[in-house]
Backbone:
RNA sequence: GUGAGCGUAGCUCAGCUGGUGGUAGCUCCGGAUUGUGGCUCCGGUGGUCGUGGGUUCGAGUCCCAUCGUUCACCCCA
């Protein structure tokens, strides 16, 4: 038996990779329009970075991380998410002193040891963005709007839900109210019993019908947040209004990571089975300081590449194919030699050129040209070559005309093609 | 970690209550007057029926195990 990839680890092969490139290109373009800079950070970090940021009792840290001891005896972890490494890099490189407000994005693989299912792999890929150094509500609105724009420009349909989780000051009072409510509740599912002990906020996310019915009467976090958080949330909503971004407030929406404060949001869809979130994020004031950095606020989000790719397919959005300028079809040894050299010159001149070296029939070569979506075919045949000519065929309208085969025919072809 | 479903050509799959693996579709290669594509037609390449046991005269089909995979729970992007 040959060696296979690990469970939950996938190859992205030609035919699929074009979709990924399209998503990435679209997103990068938008990031730059919003003045974000890319930051590349390592995939491997010290384990305590994630324990300190994500939260000791979260499922991610407790049972999903790829953690191992390296040859020096240090505990290392394959990053399960992107925010912690970026914040670590921000602190370590003193980026706060280079720019008061840093707007960063990163794209790459994340690792979580979960049971794979639709839209969930053990190695998955995220595009994540972070804005550090400001807690202005308009920035929240702008960040949410940027996530929204990515979805729009990919031609996708999704809905946006937002919520406020309050801050260090007001969250405890809500927690108290929620716990006393849960105390009265009856017949909660086993999962909720467990959640009450670990992270009571998350019971609100329960899928069990019985639990949900009862939670309708649960206290709303939005009734418990402090004046500062309430003002902030109002301004965020106003900002989204000014930008024309449609949203729904969902006071039951919570986040799985411990560090979130105030604004949180999710882009959700019903088209991906159980994994409904294609992107999500929120504010995390205090996290940078918690990681040993300056006391700066931050907000960010992550979008799942696999889920975006699945959704493009599900919602039947077309992905533009990479363009090929010329297919060089040569017939016979002399023409093959000529074509071989010409192909290289055209490539050096900047064109995308395909040539088949197997000396197949013209019919076959034209077929290949059509399949490759080539704009032109340059046919080098014995007959024309004898007269010092070649045929340049427009593959789209099937018009073709003679061109002279000369030393500088690259220039002539460039004129025709560009 | 829990549960259910599925493993038959490179891909998508038929195969009924066990009786010799399919002119199956797609892809790939070749051909349809000797040099012109995406359509059509014809032909060809391609399979230890995931693996190991068991039941049986006989197993792709039934049973057990094992591995893989999918979906859901959980968790989350």
Residues:
């Amino acid at each position: 038996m040959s060696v296979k990839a690990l469970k939950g680890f996938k190859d992205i092969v030609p035919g699929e990779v074009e979709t990924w490139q399209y998503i990435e290109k679209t997103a990068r373009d938008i990031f730059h329009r919003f003045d974000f800079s890319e930051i590349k950070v390592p995939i491997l970090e010290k384990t305590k970075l994630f324990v300190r940021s994500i939260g000791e009792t979260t499922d991610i840290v407790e049972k999903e991380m790829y953690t191992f001891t390296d040859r020096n005896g240090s505990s290392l972890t394959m990053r399960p998410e992107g925010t912690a490494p970026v914040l670590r890099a921000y602190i370590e490189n003193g980026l706060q002193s280079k720019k008061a407000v840093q707007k960063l994005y990163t794209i790459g693989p994340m690792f979580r040891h979960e049971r794979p299912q639709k839209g969930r792999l053990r190695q998955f890929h995220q595009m994540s963005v972070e804005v550090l150094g400001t807690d202005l509500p308009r920035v929240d609105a702008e960040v949410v709007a940027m996530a929204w724009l990515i979805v729009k420009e990919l031609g996708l349909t999704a809905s946006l839900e937002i919520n406020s989780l309050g801050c260090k000051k007001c969250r405890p009072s809500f927690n108290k109210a929620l716990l006393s409510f849960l105390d009265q509740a009856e017949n909660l599912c086993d999962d909720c019993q467990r959640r009450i002990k670990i992270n009571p906020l998350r019971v609100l996310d329960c899928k069990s019908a019985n639990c949900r019915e009862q939670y309708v009467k649960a206290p709303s976090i939005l009734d418990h947040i402090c004046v500062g958080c309430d003002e902030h949330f109002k301004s965020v909503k106003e900002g989204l209004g000014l930008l024309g971004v449609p949203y729904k407030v969902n006071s039951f929406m919570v986040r799985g990571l411990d560090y979130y404060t105030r604004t949180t949001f999710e882009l959700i869809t019903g088209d991906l089975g159980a994994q409904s979130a294609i992107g999500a994020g929120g504010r995390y004031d205090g996290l940078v300081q918690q990681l040993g950095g300056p006391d700066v606020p931050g907000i960010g989000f992550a979008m799942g590449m696999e889920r975006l790719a699945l959704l493009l397919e599900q919602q039947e959005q077309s992905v533009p194919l990479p363009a090929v300028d010329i297919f060089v079809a040569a017939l016979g040894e002399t023409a093959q030699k000529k074509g071989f050299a010409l192909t290289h010159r055209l490539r050096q001149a900047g064109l995308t050129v395909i040539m088949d070296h197997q000396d197949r029939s013209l019919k076959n070569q034209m077929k290949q040209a059509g399949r490759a979506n080539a704009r032109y075919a340059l046919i080098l045949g014995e007959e024309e070559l004898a007269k010092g000519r070649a045929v340049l065929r427009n593959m789209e309208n099937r018009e073709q005309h003679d061109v002279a085969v000369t030393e500088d025919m690259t220039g002539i072809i460039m004129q025709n093609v560009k």
